[in-house]
Amino acid sequence: MNCSASTNKYVCERIRASGILAQFPNVDGVLPLTHKAGCAMQYDGADHNQLDRTLAGFAKHANIGAYIIMGLGCETGAPAHLVENQGLIQLDGPKGIKPLVLTIQECGGIAKTVEAGVKAVLEMLPRANDVKRVTLSASKLILGTNCGGSDGNSGVTANPALGVAADLLIAQGGTSVLAETPEIYGAEHLLTRRAVSPAVGQKLIDRIKWWEWYTGIFGTEINNNPSPGNKEGGLTTIYEKSLGAIAKGGSTALVDVVEYAEAIRAHGLVVMDTPGYDPVSMTGIVAGGANILAFTTGRGSVFGCKPSPSLKIATNTPLYEHMIDDMDVDAGVILTGTPVEVVGKRIFEELLLVASGKQTKSEIAGVGEEEFAPWAIGPTL
Fold first, then answer.
1. What is the DSSP string of 199-260?
2. How far apart are CA 327 and CA 312, in angstroms?
């Protein structure tokens, strides 16, 4: 919970400052996953269970080598509820061994909790370092897609090119995840007609109806998009934005629709129900299992999300050149005659390189810790 956020960071800062990570070349780093919630919510309610699902998704993530759970000790989001509700076990221990939980109250304060946390991580590092990179099929990739800071070029350059890359990945047996339900709004019929069954199509319609209800109870509308920045970039209505946004989904069949942070198990095109706010959306996608991300932007987004590398795709060449330290791929060349299919293949090949160890611009910049932002759907009581 948030009351243990600083203590969580102190553990990681102590380990980083010690220089000991240099002894473990197969470990990229120690990551503090802190957030703003964890209490003042209905116990075992929708918000509580969604937070559990999100935290557990990161704990179980393929890119996480080992973990500890840290809390205050009296919060609604109790560690015991998380462990039992989500069936968490130690990643490096025998089946049935529950993960280490540290609470500030039980340890005896911040300083003692930091000492216990550092000791626990140091014990885990050698075992995490034993895991080495091996060659795997692209079918193991789960690609999370998002668009942020969109402009009038998004729907004709970066988004359709990413859709081509998604199709190529799915052809290899992989999975591509389309999200941001408010930015599907108005174009959902183009996805339901591609559903593998009426039941899958109905799941998407049900999420759209839920959003209409959810926004309505707050006196707002689902079509509050585009944002001021989107409008400055040339977008006019949510329908125009949605038509461009779903282009990231390529042309294959829609095989499943999942809730926020729900584990992604199907192979093919999957829709995850998330809000349109980038950090919150991507947090859910990564919690669902996405091990690589592709983010299109026309205005300039610097998004990263540890532990999954985030490939940034610029919709226009001036942006790519202006923010060269943050952009990975220039899709703006489509505007000067390069076929969408060529850029899409270029994105697919770049995704394979990143999955094989090449660092994205956001990784080089160290971005991706503060962007962990679980979606709170209920009231703070």
1. HHHHHHHHHHHHHHHHHHTTT--GGGPSPHHHHHTT---HHHHHHHHGGGGTTS-EEEEE-T
2. 5
* Degrees to nearest 5, angle at CA 129 with 125 and 130: 125
Q: How far apart are CA 261 and CA 69, in angstroms?
A: 18
Backbone φ/ψ region at 341: left (φ over 0), alpha (ψ -120 to 50), beta: alpha
Backbone angles phi, psi at 269, to 5 degrees: -85, 125
Tokens of 167: 């199709």
CA-CA distance, 282 to 305, in Å (whole number)? 7
Question: In whole angstroms, what is the distance from residue 146 CA to residue 159 CA?
Answer: 9
How far is residue 236's CA from residue 257's CA, in Å, rounded to a whole number?
A: 28
pLDDT of residue 258: 98
Identity of the amino acid at 248: K
Q: Which of 378, 7, 333, 331 is nearest to 147 (CA)?
A: 331
Q: What is the pTM of this model?
A: 0.95
CB of 241 within 8 A of CB of 212? no
Q: Which residues pair with 145 in a beta bridge?
A: 294
3-state secondary structure of 272: strand
- Nearest-CA neighbor of 153 among 291, 1, 5, 296? 296
Ranges of the chain with pLDDT below 50? none
Could you tell me if 257 and 200 are in contact, meaning their C-beta atoms sit under 8 angstroms apart? yes
Phi and psi, residue 25, nearest 5°: -65, -20
**Sign of the four-CA dihedral 328, 332, 334, 336:** negative
Three-state secondary-structure class, residue 115: helix
> What pLDDT does 228 receive?
67
Q: Which pLDDT belongs to residue 149?
A: 84
The DSSP line for 347-378 is HHHHHHHHHTTPPPHHHHHT--STT--PPP-S
